[in-house]
Design brief:
8-stranded parallel β-barrel; TIM Barrel; Lyase, Ornithine Decarboxylase, Chain A, domain 1; alpha/beta
């Protein structure tokens, strides 16, 4: 059994005991949306995160938004006006990025399973294509010849090191992502024999990391590998995408990532690269870190029951909308996301409860044995840290319940 969670992690304001989203009381926002469940994303918090990064990170470092973190079209449009580029991983995300008006040379298309149709779309749109294998390179070459166009390409590298303590490791050992570093010189030489516009390298190690020293170590290894591989490149690097990996705290005991030491280390490398790779723009590609803390998921309590001494709050939303908060189908040790009763933030009377969704599965859990304000039918449950990998990363068709709405306010 989990211990009761501490006060929820939140950047959202509270007034008169009610959570505020973009200055709007949650109860009023729910009326405006018209129904629950819904996701709400706060523009001001998105803006504030970008401002924070711009102030701390070295000047000249480009900041890209990885659309897979949250592909809501209005949010992507907003982010496009704040960042230097967009990164996509499917034909659908490519269309979303192109619709923003972002210059195509600042849109990159990565992913290990691009279809011929997606490669054709990427070539036609003249976005940067991140090559993930030798066979993808050859397929792209045939497509480019057929279209009579010269594709813009970046070689994605699977290094022999990893981002330690990351929530999801994307490199080191055998991986489906990118080309093994030891194979890269041969592919770089092959690119040089083809009619391709070579831009540079992507070296992406992992995601959701809260340890600054681990990120610093990965950055050092990344830059050293890039300098080594640059010797084999068909032309001087114009771009070096170092991935992201910046995490946000979700659970008790986790603290926010310390950025200043990471920024200081990046500044040293930027100065060195200005001499050794003078033509290369350095890109930091972030998703969750930009949007994760700017979003909430809201569901309504529709029933309250007691089963053998335990209180259950049953809501109209659950794992079909927010898989991550439910514990990812029971495949990991489940921990509670920060949650609250959004219209009773200042309530003193509390009780230990389980919060479950409407699905016919015991996996549909939004909170397990958490101390929350005493709630009744009609109250609004809020799951914080829900701006990334929420609705689009959930089995929304499971049991055919109504889809959750999404609003940018």
């Amino acid at each position: 059994m989990n211990k009761p969670q501490h006060a929820p992690l939140t950047q959202f304001a509270v007034q008169d005991g009610c959570l505020q989203v973009a200055g709007i009381p949650l109860t009023r926002l729910a009326l405006r949306v018209g129904s629950t469940p819904f996701y709400a994303f706060d523009r001001a918090l998105l803006d504030a995160r970008i401002v924070q990064l711009r102030q701390i990170l070295p000047g000249g470092l480009q900041l890209h938004y990885s659309i897979k973190a949250n592909p809501m079209s209005a949010l992507v449009q907003h982010m496009a006006g704040l960042v230097d580029g967009l990164d996509v991983a499917s034909g659908g995300e490519l269309k979303c990025a192109l619709d923003t008006g972002m210059p195509t040379e600042h849109i990159s298309f990565a992913g290990p399973g691009k279809t011929d149709a997606e490669l054709s779309q990427a070539v036609a749109a003249q976005v940067l294509i991140h090559l993930e294998s030798s066979s993808e390179l050859e397929r792209l070459n045939h497509i480019a010849i057929a279209l009579g166009m010269r594709p813009k390409v970046v070689l994605r590298i699977n290094p022999d090191f990893e981002l330690k303590s990351s929530g999801m490791k994307m490199s080191g050992g055998s991986k489906p992502f990118g080309v093994d570093a030891e194979q890269a010189p041969q592919l770089l030489q092959r690119i040089g024999t083809l009619n391709m516009d070579f831009y540079g390298l992507q070296i992406f190690c992992g995601s959701q990391n809260l340890k600054a020293q681990a990120i610093i170590e990965a950055h050092a290894n990344t830059f050293q590998l890039a300098l080594k591989l640059a010797e084999y490149a068909p032309r001087p690097l114009r771009l070096l995408n170092i991935g992201g990996g910046f995490g946000i705290p979700y659970f008790p005991g986790e603290t926010a990532l310390e950025l200043h030491s990471i920024a200081d280390h990046l500044q040293l490398w930027m100065q060195r690269l200005a001499n050794e790779l003078p033509a290369a723009a350095v890109v930091l590609e972030l998703g969750r870190y930009l949007v994760g803390e700017a979003g909430i998921y809201v569901a309504k309590v529709i029933d309250k029951k007691v089963s053998r001494g335990q209180i259950f709050l049953v809501t109209d939303g659950g794992m079909h909308h927010h898989l991550a908060a439910s514990g990812n189908l029971g495949q990991v040790i489940r921990k509670n996301y920060p949650v609250a009763i959004g219209n009773k933030m200042a309530a003193e009377n509390k009780e230990l409860v389980n919060v479950v969704g409407p699905l016919c599965t015991p996996l549909d859990i939004l909170a397990d044995q958490m101390l929350l304000p005493v709630a009744e039918v009609g109250d609004l449950l809020v799951v914080f840290q829900s701006g990334a990998y929420g609705l689009s990363a959930s089995p929304s068709q499971f049991l055919s319940h109504r889809a959750a709405l999404e609003v940018l306010v």
